Amino acid sequence: MQCLWLILKYFGKASGLLINPHESIMIFSKNVEERSRHEMAEVIRVSIVPKHDKYLGLPTVAGRSKKEISELPDSLVSEIESLMSNFLSNRGEALKIHLLGWSKLCISCKEGSLGFRRLREFNIDLLAKQAWKIALIPGGTLHSVLRHKYFCQSSFFATGLGSSLSYTWRSVQGTQDLLAAGIRWKTRDDLSIQILGHPWLPKLSTFPVRKLISLLTKAKELSSLMMNTNGIRI
């Protein structure tokens, strides 16, 4: 417990984000023993509660925008887009006359429209950006924490839905298919690329190998197809 407290103190000194014991409370999952809960409360000197009455904060890794780490409900997206569309109507509050449909207002400025963002797609883009960082920056704090909790035995792209998922993780994980549709492996010196399953072929329409010819049925990894010639793999 003392070690954790020291980590929090060092983090506070480095970031300027200090714990205010008078304004702070602690919540523990059911997996934490009662003794450990009280020991932690004594060390940090904050009270323990069963749940938050109101939570206004965000994880520090999330930046300042909630839509970067959680998926907005469709009803909320529709309501916001409706308000934006009505704001641009021709007759004000008395009579809403829309000169153009919302979909046309979202066309790029380069194509002659106003270039408003479609909130649903924009929200998904921000979530995919977080997923990209988690999947491809293995040394980051965010990756380390989430990997230990959700995909300790596999990669980000191999994780299933599972159970007891946080809403944040469920939202970020929901962009797996979007990312997988556009990524591919670079074959330089990575020996772990699988011939089947991993997208590594250079042509856009044929990233993954669809089937193996008979000579390659026993080969699993791309490295097995390469020859080492004077230190150069061909």
Automatic annotation (TrEMBL):
Q: What is the lineage of its organism?
A: Eukaryota, Viridiplantae, Streptophyta, Embryophyta, Tracheophyta
Domain of life according to the entry: Eukaryota
Q: What is this protein called?
A: Reverse transcriptase
